Amino acid sequence: MFPEDLKPPVWVLRMGHRPGRDKRVTTHVALLARSFGARGVLVDRRDERLHQTVEEVVKRFGGNFALRSGVSPKREVENFPGAVVHLTMYGEPLRWHVKELKGEERLLVVVGAEKVPGWVYQKADYNISISQQPHSEISSLAVFLHELYGGVEEELSFPGAREVILPAKKGKKVISLEAPPLSELKKEEGWIPDEKEALRILVDVGTPPAVISHCLAAMEFSKDLLARVSKNVKIDERLLLVGSLLHDVGRSRSHGIDHGVIGGELLRGLGVDERLAKVAERHIGAGLDEEDASRLGLPPKRYVPETLEEKIITHIDNMLADSERVPLSTFLERMRKRGLEKVARRALDIQMELETLLDIKFDELIG
Ligand code: SAM
To answer: Fewer C-beta neighbours within 10 Å, C or N terminus of the chain?
Structure first.
């Protein structure tokens, strides 16, 4: 999901910026606005250094974000084609208005630095407080955007990024994107991206960082498996590795059961090889037959993994809880608790078939 998908779009007007004194705070207002899904920031005083800092962040971490400095606040407020929200401790609690605000066409959110002139309180359509105590424009803006967009900031993706930060228990997990932006990649019919291009696809179609982390864990799992399997077994290694990376690409649009079908369509739309589209489409549960599919409201079709690569990816996915490897029993228990005995049985069948064919034990790959 991209900031451009969020409704209503938000622009932030930062008033009272003093280039010498407020450099850090105004920069943080802009960075916070960007990372929580706002479309851009307007600042009342011209500040070249602010432009430089924000441009560097956008270049490195991606997305589109507008910054205009040296604007006239009065003109911006008067001409804004939407509702104006002023964040102030003197206003009314956000809770009273959040529903109405979600329904507005677009919002201009005004935050101050020092004392905000009286006309802003009068011209604003809403004066909104985030607690009735004094704190800061950065914190009030964070809470406002978090509530307005329902906490979606963790799901946001910024296309064209050179670096993506992934969730990590300890230390730092950062991936460098070496492939050019998706718009510049060759997308011919039957295209099998390499690993770098597959990562670029994930980022540029809007896959949340936590899902990218899971996809990388699936690829690592596949690599470990390949290292144990005899070279006599015919596996298309590239298809397996890139398929592991792309199997959840549909979660850029939905975390529901439909993410497999969506992923398949998305890959086909990019001209990606049909075999990879099928990996995405058939990895749900342990595959879905026509009856399961129609019960779940999916287009009536058989989504059961057939090729060796499809089966391995489906199985690996069932042995991953987010990015951690877990025994298949964890997945089986979860399915049985939900009354999905058929899925559990199919997953066990796939495990038996793969362990025999590949002469491995999946539990030994858990580590
Ligand atoms: N004392 C100043 C005034 O009277 O407007 C506010 C200064 S405060 C450091 C800077 C900005 O933080 C304010 O203009 C407002 O946008 C925001 N702010 C601070 N506390 C707030 C609160 N409780 N609710 C909403 N916004 C707040």
So the answer is: C
